[in-house]
Every structure is written in C-alpha cells, then in structure tokens.
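Data deposition worksheet. Section B asks for the primary sequence of the deposited chain exactly as it was used as input, without tags or linkers unless they were present during the calculation. Section C holds the resulting structure in token form. Section D is free text for depositor observations; keep each observation to a single sentence. Incomplete worksheets are returned to the depositor.
Section A, Depositor: J.P.
Section B:
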Amino acid sequence: MELYEKLKYHRDAGPYPLHMPGHKRNIRAYEMENPYGLDITEIDGMDDLHAPEGILKEGMDLAARTFGAEESWYLVNGSTAGILAGITACTKPGDTVLVARNCHRSVYHALMLRQLKPVYIIPASVGGWDFCGQILPETVEEMLETSCKAVEEMLPAENRSRKPALVVLTSPTYEGILSDIPRIAQICHKYGVPLMVDEAHGAHLGFGRFPAGAVQGGADVVVQSLHKTLPAFTQTGLIHSQGTLVHKERIKAALDIYQSSSPSYILMAGIDRCVRLLAENKIDFSGWERMLSDFYARTACLHGLQVLDMPSGIKDPSKLVVSTARTGRTGAALMDLLRKEYGFELEMAAPRHVIAMTGAGDTAEKIEAFAEALIDIDRRWRSAAVFGEETVHGALPISPGEEALYDALPLLPQPKVVLSPGEAAIQTGRQVSAEAAEGLICLESVMAYPPGIPLIAPGERVTAEVLAAAESYRKGGISLRGMTDGMITVL
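Section C:
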C-alpha cells in the first residue's frame, strides 16, 4: 500500500487519534482545498521566509502580538530547527550551557554542532510515577551561583570563572509537567544569562484558562510546535524572542542555516491560519477545557489504572497520562489493547504508563468514549489474577514477563559526562553488547522515541543504572534507538 492510501485509510477508517497533530484530522472544523492547487514558491507578491518584507512578515508580526513576544518567526522544519537556531544564536563554540537532563534529542544535537560543554540540571521526581518532574528554581540558582563544579572540571583553568552562556529546559515536558518559568527566568536574568525554553508541547498555553506559557513567564527564547496541540500541519511551529540578552539578528541568521531554502507555502499558510484563529478567538478553548474537566472527573473512579491529575499550575491538563503500575501490566499492553479493541491510537507508551494527547480538534464525544474505555479496561483488569482473584469473563491475563514491571522502575539515569557530545561525535567507536558496555564511554544516544530523551547521551559513561533502565524498557515492550540488537557503540 502506498503512503497516500495509508493516510486515507487512517482518515476514513483508522483508530481515533489521541496523538498529535492537534487538529485531529477534524475536517469539519478545519479544512483547506486540494493542496496541489495551493503549492507555490517565492514568486512576486508571495514574500520570502528568509528575507520577509510582505505577507509573511505581516503574519509573523501577528504571531508576536498574539503570543506576547517582541519578535516571532515561522518554523517549517519543526521545533527542531527552532531549538538548533536558538542555541546557536545564544552561544559560541566551547561555551558552557546549563541543560535540563530531560531535554529532547534536538538539544543534544545542538550541543554537538556547537561543540558546547553541557552541565546537566537534574529534574525533580514525580512521586509514584516513573518520569521526570519540574526543574526547580532553587536548583538553577545554586548551579548559576556556584558556577558549577562540573564546569570547573571541564574548562581550562583560565576559563573557570566564565559563566554559562545559556540555560535550556523543557516545559511542559512530554507528560505535561510545568516548571516555574517566571522564577527561573528571574534567576537567570539576575546572573545575566538568557533562558531558552523548549515549549514544543505548549503552544496552547496562555489561551483560554490553560496555564501561562514561557513567553508570559519571561523566557528570552521560546520554541513551540503549533501542530502538537493546535490546528496546524505537522512540522510547523514558532520561535519567539524577547529582552536584550539575545541578539535577534543572530536568531535570523541561524534560521537561515537550519530551515529549508524552499519552504512550503502550504505549511506557512497553515501557520498563518492557526495564528489568525488564535488572534480572532476562533478556537473553542472553553469546550476543550470542559471536556478535559469531565474526563478527569469521570476517571477518578479507577482502581487499577491511575490518571495523573495535578493542579494546572504544575501540569498541563491537556496531556492525559495513565499509569498501569498498579495493574502489573505494561504501558505497551494498554496502548495495544486500546488500539485493537477500543479504536484509540495513543501518543506513546512507556514501561508503566501511556500518554494520550488532546488537542483543539478533539470532540467531547471521543474524549468521553476514551474515559469509558479506560473504565472498562480497569474493570476487566481488576478481575484478573494480578489482584489475587479468579479470572472471570472479560478479564485479560498478564503476558509473560509483565509481572516484573510491577516493581518501581528507575527514573532518568544520571551517568557521568566524560566527553562533551561534540567531542564524542568525532570519535571512532566500536559496537559491543550492552552487558560489555558498562564502564565504557557511549558514543550515541540511547532513547525511546517518542519522547526522544536520551537514557544516555554521547560522551557519558555507561553505568549499571543505565543498563537497568534499558532492560526495563525492553521488558515493557518499548524499543530503544541506539541499542540495535542489544549492541551499543562505545569508545
């Protein structure tokens, strides 16, 4: 089957998308004509993304006003291009940067390309859950104030007083956890260090009654994927800038490098239309918020499954995170069951939880049906042997190996940085089995994708903790990139 036919199948008969993009293929709410009639290039009157003076500049100016930034630019190569451009604009080769350890792989790629020295900020934990939480303001302040012992170890003696060039963090996280951006921005600015926030999953923040976003919080550079939660095409986003710590001309120059020289006008039209829907208050945020509120209320009765419900200032409610830990089953098992028997395709599965993404294009009917599906599965799994009861009609047996996932899984490992990612990238390595890799220096990222957060990054020493985390993912039915057939490239 060709890709076009596969896309038509998913549109017409596939499972309901509880994943990005945020328009949810809702052609009743959002429609465009046949794209072939709209596809064009930089002819007279159509402006140029890399030197905008007309209609594209007008659209980007509207985006800045709508989101509250000083200047905004279209992204047609996804948030990845924005992250690469933002980090490039804020740093020089050899600089030290403070980086949240749970950042997306595109941040690590920027570290490689710019030959930067990362010092990792370790996120707080989320009690009872197996993923990273907030970046605490006091942690950022302590690291900036002390200049980081790790920085001193990595830099030559004559440069040890040099402050970090940039602080980079992700908020919201893939699970929707929000850091206190206003406080962190204030701390960074006290030390004269710009703050860049990967807000790829939070373009909707600050609209309706959703929590405020990073632009309102005072971050200097903010990167957003419009398509993740809003009605825009996949691969589209915005990068915003404000304040005096980042030179906007350097952002423009970096975007000229990292974005296509032949940008799609269809993608840019999608960005423009999405921004105008926001500016004209034509997106039904109140309806979206209402269906989310109903979902959380309806699923409060779950016994084995558990929905993460936290105050909106700490978590973005649009991310529906469901734990399987109390059932003894894996996230992959829940995701597979929802697809095959209930007609829902989720965003991702982790060893002990799943993520369902809601967006502006969702309908109350489908979100209510998802809640009912979870309630039904919870009833079926409660009847299974994991709770010490006899299996009854409709109950689902535990698959071999799933019992081991009942115990707590390790959070994101914290291996020691031996080489910077850029130094590691130029090394010639060898492949060894995972068991033989302990104590050696990893030369590639090992990660589940999604979410694309490395369990171990290039230049870090492989530890028993890393290998245990990788094994937990394997048992949970989650494949890892960078560990092909159980082999890892090491130095």
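Section D:
Confidence is low (pLDDT under 50) at residues 385-410.
The radius of gyration is 23 Å.
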